[in-house]
Automatic annotation (TrEMBL), chain A:
Annotated family: Belongs to the PTH family.
HAMAP family: Pept_tRNA_hydro_bact
Organism listed in the record: Ananas comosus (Pineapple)
Protein name in the entry: Chloroplastic group IIB intron splicing facilitator CRS2, chloroplastic
InterPro entries: CRS2-like (IPR048076), Pept_tRNA_hydro (IPR001328), Pept_tRNA_hydro_CS (IPR018171), Pept_tRNA_hydro_sf (IPR036416)
UniProtKB/TrEMBL annotation, chain B:
Keyword RNA-binding in annotation: yes
InterPro entries per UniProt: CAF1P_plant (IPR044599), RNA-binding_CRM (IPR001890), YhbY-like_sf (IPR035920)
UniProt lineage: Eukaryota, Viridiplantae, Streptophyta, Embryophyta, Tracheophyta
Biased composition (Basic and acidic residues): 513-529
Region (Disordered): 1-54, 508-563
Stated name of the protein: CRS2-associated factor 2, chloroplastic
The organism of origin for this protein: Ananas comosus
Domain CRM: residue ranges: 192-291, 313-409
One GO CC annotation: ribonucleoprotein complex
Entry keyword Ribonucleoprotein: yes
Amino acid sequence: MWTSLLSTSSSTFLPSPSPSPSTHSFPPPPQPRRRLFRRVAVVASIPDPAEGRKAEYTPWLIAGLGNPGSKYHGTRHNVGFEMIDRISGEEGIVMNTIQSKALIGIGSIGEVPIMLVKPQSYMNYSGESVGPLAAYYQVPLRHILLIYDEMSLPNGVMRLQPKGGHGHHNGVKSVMEHLDGSRNFPRLCIGIGNPPGTMDMRAFLLQKFSSEEREQINSALDQGLEAVRTLVLKGFNASIDRFNLVQKYKHHKV
Amino acid sequence: MPAILPLPTKKPKPKSKTKPTTTTTTTTTTKNPGNGNPNISKPSPALRAAHSRTHYHKPVPPGGAVLGEGERAVVVGASGVSYRLPGAPFEFRFSYSETPRAAPLAIREPAFLPFAPPSMPRPWTGKAPLLSKKEKERRRGKIRLFEPLGGASAEAEAEEGAVVLETRGRRPLELGNYAAGDGRSREEVLGPPLTRAEVRALVRPHLSHNRQVNLGRDGLTHNMLELVHCHWRRQEVCKVRCRGVPTVDMNNICRRLEQWQEKTGGKIIHRIGGIVYLFRGRNYDPRKRPRYPIMLWKPAAPVYPKLIQEAPEGLTKAEADEMRDKGQSLLPICKLAKNGIYISLVKDVRDAFEGSELVKINCEGMHASDYKKLGAKLKELVPCVLLSFDNEQILMWRGKDWKSKYSTPMPSLSKLQLSEGVLQSDVNSSGESTGHSDETTVSKVLWSPKMFSLWKRAIDTQKALMIDGNELSPDSLLKRVEEFEGLSQAAEHSYPALILTGGEEPNAMTAESNDKAKMGISRDPKDHDEEIDGTDNGADYEGSDFDSLETDVESSVPFGSLPIDSIAERLSRDC
């Protein structure tokens, strides 16, 4: 496994056929450690064709925000958790590890490694678990996907954005704080609609869904799963824009 | 003597056929309250639309018509009503941007040109009208010159029979004189193009200032040409603020401004939202500018073909009615404000058509003429078919020949495609996955080696805990997480304790050290030396005496093995 570690750490370079004496005359390369490893890998290990050619994809960290405990299970504020459960179910990723106050599961969608995270700190402190996790697993900022509920979208409408603000969502605010105040991470917003009339916002968020809303959310989660797959495999492109438009007008049908 | 006023119902009396309705644009006439009740808020005279209720109706043949004789003519053609005047550089129109593409069917008033007549049958022998109360107020603080500015030149320019509107206290306004400018081309007047810094400097003072030309539901009107030149006389940049129906097609407005500008010489330097900043040109000379006659009244709009047909575009009446019924229960895609900016409306409607063939827009609060004009514009821009305007909503159908802008239907990644890829890579790296399958019970999922190594290290260094995640209720999960958090924090933040000899409370100290020894791993996994030391000391602590601890003090904390020491060493090495 040690050799495989070495080969993957240098996997961005293709292994050279043999170290030629002419390389010594070049000026010292900026990363001498890497070059050393490359030579060692070529000389010491038997080149495995699959490992040599396979590039290591940058992992994604998919975090769903919610409140822990059965008191908050299935409430509006916890749609993030439900989405993560759906992804883990469909992709066969078992969430079996507790690290940094969160329940995590490591796996992959296709070739891309992903990590599903359900922070078990309360919503306002989600950043304390997501931030250190991203740092530990060396996930870059642009590959942290945050899934949360959004009151400005109608119920069941989703939106995938490459970056954005917090929209007065305490969970997102805390995550942004722990990521050094940066807003440039992608997010999947799941709409839950405005509180009716003059209902208190917090009471609305901690309420469970009604039956029609429940059906809408379930179908939305399926659609969102497709979108997450596309995002992880292909990144932000025209199909994501199309997904956003389809979601925006999906309730305006006859 | 007070007249006996009629009851307060404001209906205009039916006008005779030959006399055109005139509403002068000059401000010398004051509003005459027709009824005696001052509390009823009167609708704005601009919206009174007396013209639409006239009984005059003269159809125009489909090829267009030229009404009037000789040089002064009213041309009714495919692009609406325009006025031809002798010596004019182009045909004047009431509105240059808001003319619908449909050809008019009839005109609503006799074909008079809304400009001043070229000459009067006899010279004017009267006096200018008296000043109104407001004008006297305005004049109160001002100093009257013996000769008004430009007064001498005005008299010199006035020719025999020329039409001059006399005003008190101001220079007389010439109507009906027009000049095509001094013949310079647009490029000459504009001069070299502006740099970005210059543009910013020019636009900056106007950004929060409301000295502007307002462009409303009539779009770019003829009198606006004069108005912009008046602004340009005082400042180099004229700010044009567009609101309402014309903003549906801002590009059209900008194109018309640029087109028109070719005749006057001006350039759009900045455009944001519904606001356009017009620069007059570096070599602009207000004295040599082109002069156009002003339109004295708003001419009646001609009759256009009906927007909503009973059975539009090949549908039968029954089908159309069925669609209208379906539209009753449709959610509107947006609600439009009364005088708002609708820049993204066309794009939104086009996107909505991708999902559904019927689209409804909520126009509550807008005037009926406004949302009908809006519907007409949408019909041209988004090609669509208007079905109904009832309940102040616009209902549209995308038409039979609608083509989606996407070439493929919505692609969906099926689980099938993915699982094939997973199985393939499973076979290739079977060595790894069999190694993993000990830990993960049922997973056929490929783990990236880097992630796996990080995960393994986390578990080994007690930062992570593996649990059986399947049958765990949220409450018990929370409890376990909180428990583990306490333990792992202790592991992370602890260091093998220095227990100095002191005799008091030895038991407690031992217990503490034993706990920590069981975790026994120091915080920084990078330093292998430290790790080994920690575990060794842990083993030592379990069975050792307190007396021997004094000798162990030095060995338990090897000098220079704290994390801060490694940082200091690295820094001193670097510099």
